[in-house]
Write a structure and sequence with these properties.
There is one protein chain. The protein is globular, with a radius of gyration of 20 Å. It has a domain of about 240 residues: NAD(P)-binding Rossmann-like Domain (Rossmann fold). The strands form 3 sheets. A 7-stranded parallel β-sheet has the order 3-2-1-4-5-6-10, sandwiched between helices. The protein has a 3-stranded mixed β-sheet with strand order 7-9-11. A two-stranded parallel sheet has the order 8-12. It has 13 helices and 12 strands.
Length: about 350
């Protein structure tokens, strides 16, 4: 099988590509524009593999997408390319509209054109898997409420609104044109190769440098945390075994308040990195409360019962085991972290190497 993965140089995308190539043994064509969040160093383990190919292409470029489809002839598309940082969407929403909505539309049209040209059996087997987020649902009110696949959409940020728009487009292309689509909505991911602007890697790296650990408000926002390698397994399972036209929510069964996540990171660092920066007695002393984000959702939590019942998927990692692996990975991969922090990872994107 050959799968076209968009956004394969990003955090979740690179985890998926590594899983598909190294664990599942399938061929992957990675289509990525290489924005600031795209890092080819995250794909070093597959870069020389005969089952892996990279195409630096913007999903808004229809002509280039047509070329990629014609040249590589994939049996499926897994669409992960997206602008995904909420704070950046508040400061500059235009890029989110362009990539997440216009880009998804352009990719859908390129995929539909390619799909219609396939012979009968290949057309029947083709799949377009759209990977989305639980943030499209807004936030939850009651402490026992959970997002299900039928929860009404109520996005709060330009990011989540743009992802909601892309979800609607994918479903419309199924309803109107018959394109064989699958949709997944996941909870907060964490794990190795996570870009340092996100909560968990930001806290780890700031703590190691003796910098403040900024926590929005009082840190009482609740998120359901999903280890990224568990997510990659789930995505592959949905693609191969999911029912066309269906939506599957993917969650980690790990609801945690942000402040509790930060405290857990500090405790792990006390154990795994006891040699602290000068002037730091305890990592937790670095915690600093900052003004909350505009429109900040208070609680996300996913009911992942459908994917468990229908496809037999459950996460392998608890939050405790996954967080320990994550903290240890950042301690063991300081060079990767330095290349992200000093910008040298972008040499590929800027055409300098």
């Amino acid at each position: 099988m050959k799968i076209l993965v968009t956004g394969g140089a990003g955090f979740i995308g690179s985890a998926l590509v590594r899983h598909l190539v190294l664990q599942a043994g399938v061929e992957v064509v990675n289509v990525d524009k290489l924005t600031y969040a795209g890092n080819l160093e995250s794909l070093a383990s597959v870069a020389g593999n005969s089952r892996y190919a990279f195409e630096r292409v913007d999903i808004c470029d229809r002509a280039e997408l047509d070329r990629v489809f014609s040249q590589h002839r994939p049996q499926a598309v897994m669409h992960l390319a997206a602008e995904s940082h909420v704070d950046r969407s508040i400061d500059g929403p235009a890029a989110f509209i362009e990539t997440n909505i216009v880009g998804t539309y352009t990719l859908l049209e390129a995929a539909r054109h390619y799909w219609l040209g396939l012979p009968g059996e290949a057309r029947d087997a083709f799949r377009f898997h759209h990977v989305s987020t639980d943030e499209v649902y807004g936030d939850l009110e009651g402490p026992g409420d959970l997002f299900t696949e039928t929860t009404p959409y109520a996005p709060s940020s330009p990011y989540s609104a743009s992802k909601a728009g892309s979800d609607h487009l994918v479903r419309a292309w199924r309803r109107t044109y018959g394109l064989p689509v699958l949709v997944t909505n996941c909870s907060n991911n964490y794990g190795p190769y996570h870009f340092p602007e996100k909560l968990i890697p930001l806290m780890i790296l700031n703590a190691l440098e003796g910098k403040p650990l900024p926590v929005y408000g009082q840190g009482l926002q609740v998120r359901d945390w999903l280890y990224v390698e568990d997510h990659a397994r789930a995505l592959h399972r949905v693609l191969t075994d999911g029912r066309v036209g269906e939506t599957y929510n993917i969650g980690g069964h790990n609801e945690k308040r942000n402040i509790d996540v930060v405290h857990a990171i500090c405790e792990l660092l006390e154990e795994l990195a006891p040699a602290k920066p000068a002037g730091v007695a305890h990592y937790r002393d670095l915690i600093t409360y900052v003004q909350d984000r505009p429109g900040h959702d208070m609680r996300y939590a996913i009911d992942a019962g459908k994917i468990q019942r229908e496809l037999g998927w459950t996460p392998r990692e608890t939050f405790e085991s996954g967080l320990r692996k994550t903290v240890q990975w950042y301690l063991d991969n300081q060079e990767w972290c330095r290349h992200v922090q000093d910008g040298s990872y972008q040499r590929e994107r800027l055409g300098m190497v």
